[in-house]
Amino acid sequence: MRLYTTLLLSMLYCSISSYAAPGDTTTVLVHNAVDMTWFGNYDQQGVFPDGSTTYRKVIMTYTLGCASGGCSDWDYTTQIWFRRPTGTLDSTVTNLDTVSTNPLVVDTTWNVYEVIENMELGRVITPYGTYMDNGSNGFNNSWSHRYTFDVTDYVHLLKDTCDIRAHYSGWSSGFSVTLRFDFIEGTPPRDILSIHNLYKGSKGYSTFSDFESTYFTPKTVDVPANATGARIFSTITGHGFDNNVNCAEFCPRQYTVKTNGAPLNSAMIWKDDCGSNPIYPQGGTWIYDRAGWCPGSKGDIHEFEWTNFNAGAANTIDFDMQSYTWSGNQAPSYTVNAHVVFYGNNNYTNDASLIDIIAPSKHEEHLRKNPFCGNPVVKVKNLGAAPITTLVIEYGLNGAGTCRYTWTGNLPFLEETDIELPTLQWQGANPNDPTFTATIVSVNGVADEFPQDNTLKSTYDVPDIHTLPFLLLSVQTNNYANETSYAVKDKDGNIIFERIQGSMAPNTVYKDSIFLSDGCYNLTVNDGGGDGLGWWANTAQGSGHVRILSPIFTFITLKNFAIDFGNSIDYNFVWTSTDSIQSACSLITGKEVIPTLTELTHALYPNPTTGVCTVEIGSPEAQDYTCRVYNMMGVLVHQQRVQNTTHSTLELNLEDQPSGVYLFEVEGSLGTKRVEKFIIAK
Fold first, then answer.
1. Which fold, 598-682?
2. What's residue 470's pLDDT?
3. CA dist., res. 11 & res. 310, Å (int)
């Protein structure tokens, strides 16, 4: 399939974005919502370009979704492999007849086959699917999440007809996989000469000496005579922890890359931001940091630039890992992919690439930062030989004015950086086409040598607009109040109001009236323990709440935040006086304004509960309410009714019910209904 300059590449580099004027682009779809329902391999053939065209980049977008029967409850490793034919033949015995000596008869059948080398293109660990049941926590069975991988180094292999394998390590159904490859024409930053696997597969760690001697052994690679650069790529994820040191999954370990016997660089097998996962809330222990991965994330990719090799000769590469000993029931194991790529000379001197729009954006990878009304954030990569010291960037919303910003710094070759741009101009923005565009105008004071990847577009949602006399913020601490802090900041990061960590008492409700001028604001709630204000696996902390209340009808909750938020809540909103809805940031029309005081609202707490919880119900108009509780088999286990009121507080006594997940439903006589999932943990 061939697409030309009218194509908008909507899944490129982790944003709903497109190059404004790309070179011709060829898109190949291999797996298309293929269900992965049991441990094993899911192979598909793809018809790729024939290799006669030069490509600037090749981007693989892996869309993970629920299987047709729903998402699995567990976190499983998935890997995408290119199946590389080696040209080497091997054989196995398929039939061995008896051997007679009188006369001598040997009638054996051999299966001869070509040896295939698996080369990993990407690795994603699935999220815990427990909270992603149909109709739960805002999810349904059409849930999906996109992950992008730069696979340009494989371009000379991804040609003609290729076998692509999706490997699923799960033991239950399931998830689905869709793979899209975008081949973007143009000259790459440097020519790719060869690629070599170093380490691949999974290996149990019984002892340090066994692991090093049988797995992380020195590898010999032949360096092309015309190579001027090389880069080593490594993805190592640790799994298993039923032992005295919680290795490999929950213990950080350092490894060192050696070339020709000398240390090149080191990295940690550890991912320390699982509590900020954009896929949340999940079931399981999703907030715990892990060895190179989080549930629902890509495996960490480490890159090591290598320049002091011996061109035209054999060189050695060796990995050494920090040692440890363990005892227990479950051996640690590591899933490893490491390869080295050799390159020719740089093809550009001044070449910047705009690779992502973090905000404003609707991409699911950036949900923690969006919707958004503050300072835009973009990601830039240097693909030219010269360090980037200045960049001029133009940006703006469709229909509104364009802004220009000059960034200064020092960005070396192949390094990336996030750039925060000054505030947007919202006046005139088109609500029917909410598009943000950013363009790199110049690099180091000169024109970019490859301008085709200098522009990105993203679509966005308008943040909540509050039109009230003041912000009434209600925060209830849990048992661990010393972990909680929160602040309201303006668009420039100035603190308007805050309660610092350690300043609040346990199990206390703080209602703060915060007076704001028209503008864009951010509410951040931080939890120092990384497990929110309530989490099923830490019932000892109890639970709290974070709500924005109506100062007019104080019993009505305008915004109720999930308490299972991990590290923090990051909420952007627009504040404007009741008589001037358009004044805040000169914001777009067409956004539904909060409060919508005709809706039924409710709050259920604590969640999780040991069996008794409180429910607050309210609406501006008096009506009858019916409250129901169902177990996960759909059986009604509790029902209460409240008649002719605008606000009611009632107690649900479910102490006779076993631990598990339940659905609470409240239905008003005026036709509105609310549903929430909660947990009984005894």
1. Immunoglobulin-like (2.60.40)
2. 86
3. 39
